[in-house]
Write a structure and sequence with these properties.
Largest sheet of chain B: 6 strands, parallel
Number of strands of chain A: 9
Low-confidence stretches of chain B: 1-25, 41-47
CATH superfamily of the largest domain in chain B: Thiamin diphosphate (ThDP)-binding fold, Pyr/PP domains
Low-confidence stretches of chain A: 1-27
Mean pLDDT of chain A: 85
Shape of chain A: elongated
Strand content of chain A: 25-35%
Structural class of chain A: alpha+beta
Number of strands of chain B: 18
Number of domains of chain A: 2
Mean pLDDT of chain B: 92
Oligomer: heterodimer
CATH class of the largest domain in chain A: Alpha Beta
Number of helices of chain A: 4
Number of domains of chain B: 3
Structural class of chain B: alpha/beta
Largest interface: A-B, 58 and 69 residues
Amino acid sequence: MTDPTTRRPPAAPPPAVPGPAAAAQAAPAVRDEPGTGAGHRHVLVAVVNNRPGVLNRVASLMRARNFNIDSLAVGRTERPDVSRMTITLHGDDVAVEQAAKQLYRLIDVLKVQDVTTEPRIEHELALVKVRATNSTRAEVLKIIELYKGRVVDVAADSVIVEATGTEDEIDALVSLVGGFGIREMVRTGTTVMVRGPQVVEYEGVTR
Amino acid sequence: MTITGRQTAGGMAPASAPTTGRHLPGAGTEGATAVEHARTGMLRDAKPRGRTRIGADVVCEALLRQGVEVFFGYPGGVVLPLYDVLGDYPELRHVLVRHEQGAAHAADGYARATGRVGVCLGTSGPGATNLVTGIGTAMLDSIPMVAITGNVAAALLGKDAFQEIDITGITLPMTKHNYLVRDANDLPHVFAEAFHIARTGRPGPVHIDITKDALQQETQAPHPDDEAVLAAIPGFRPNFDGHSRQLRLAARLVDEAARPVILAGHGILLAQAWDQLRAFAEKTQIPVAHTLLGVGAMDETHPLSYGYMGMHGWKHVNRAIQSSDLLIALGMRFDDRVTGKVSTYATGARIVHVDIDPAEIGKNVSVDVPIVGDVGRVLAALTPLVAERRPEDRASYFAELAAWRVESESRSWHGSGAWRDGLLSADYVIEQIGAATDHDATLVSDVGQNQMWMARYAGYRRPNSHLSSGGLGTMGYALPAAMGAALGRPDKETWAICGDGGFQMTLQELATLVQDHIPVRIAILDNNKLGMIRQWQELIYAGNYHSSHLLGPDFLKLADAYGIPAFRATTPDEVPAAIAAARAVDGPALVHFRIADEQNVFPMMPAGKGLSDLIEEWGGADE
């Protein structure tokens, strides 16, 4: 077989009617690459099976797919077999939608919802151990009171403040007490719930 | 009793079963009977012992319930409880491989050739990690597979016990799902879920890790029915039917398009949607281009089959895509080897993208009409919505496509069989194998130049006749995968087409072919090089060759050592006879094709460039 043109028949034989080769001109000259737009903060709710290793699956996926998580909070729900995660991350809408779709591929993920555009309550909890000597303690306590923080432990030269609120509120408290010296701090990461009667619905395991 | 105090297990045939010398005995001969006797002796002698049902029994029952006839494995300490009961299930054929990677690829090849779930088994620790490359290969190519590993007893987990490794941690990102089972009562459910997940929706590998004590534990747990399986995995509900509004939008684009191209991917084969694809293409008279894993989605002799796209695809196909005004992507994922630089990819085209995995849509390119669903069902629903066209309606488009095709095919084809200086041309070898087997054999490629030649030049007429590690690009894939394919489709001739590099990665399975009498024909395209590496070094790294020259053994002597008949062709005129000789062997056979050292695969799209930036020749040479 030496003639290459005989190897396969060419495409169907051509009679008349013009095929507008120029019709292709309307579309853009550069194709957009998804996920490269301007990013902003998104809040995802993921409802997952309460099983060993599920957090690892979620975290591993986000790492492997190169999504940058700002915070991830996980805990139990009203159902013992179900946990709920609140994930905050930065990215353009397409990239975050891609993250949500990748999460859906996990068998243990029952529901993913981007609540960024919903009216919502978004709170986290922080414990801050602030340096407080005899001379500064009164001032520290005043600031904490103003920010509706709660003192949960007092020691000779420090107090532990418990604060709940939005990330911004806690940031503000932290920056104010920061001047006195923060010895230790821990934050839970944001948890979120949509306002009003609406709930994040999912199909759970039926047993 | 030996000096180590080790005994052969009671009642079993000794490991060194009677064989009849080095050469593979022909069927029906006394030698063949002896080999068969040795192979099945253990099963025949096994007697169901009066014993209780244990986890290992559940595994065997589950495999049989799922229709598994053959699986591939390698024993080890923690899976011995399973091997201890295997003899009680003679319907379940276990093929003893020589390396667990071979088991995983064989299961993969079996799955691709049959469309059913392939099963492989390894022990804990190194047995499990050896499976990993094969599991990753299956993941990237969406192959339905269940990989089983043993692990140390539950009480030892986390203690760095002998041959313990966190294998579920390792396979987590490369499986569709995985399980660690510590309780035999969970095994029935886990196996039923695993098979369902592996084959449903977008297929993929599922890994089940079982502790040794779970395999030994007594259990009466029943196997669940389908309903119970579904109820247990509410997080897995693939969408099979495309949204009707999206279908109408797609139909409108199809009707309006002047230069549409169908991009047929692996999804067509996985969904067994080749008939629906042909019906849709014929009604709309839209040419079909295919991806590497979409080879075979359409008979290549069909007038609407246009050819293989992408980095080493045909120039005419890439040209058609670049000048298209509508790409209808069916079960493909716009891999970088398909699109090249996305910003320059088919910039004049709208895109309709059909895929069962929503995460594939909008992942690599933005699309105009996404349709999430089983590609067969989507096409069946879409076809009635689109206007019927006649070939005449697309006359000038088809004329242009035909002219492009003639030009591009004539430029990259060595019909004489000779490349420069009369050296044997690889594309000719591939073409001859395709022709000799009436384009009906299952051809399994390795990775590299041989893979591209095989995809381009063999000529495919039927689905699942082209097997290739596309996504992960696993060298060493061909031989073990062909083993699985041959067992899955004994009605079809099976060829493993390897380079000398990839063949040397997994050639240990030659012994498996002989022991289990698996009739794989092996074609080694030997250029004494890692050919694709050498090609890149020539073209992209300014001829700075490093580690691409490869010393190989005398492949004929190697085959002889295993008792495999082997043949050699070093010139074009020797090729047909060598192929014919290998085909005439009853059992495995090997052909050593000594091809030109420095032949390149052209055209080539350099990585990071666009589909329009093809290198078609080098240094003015005829490639």
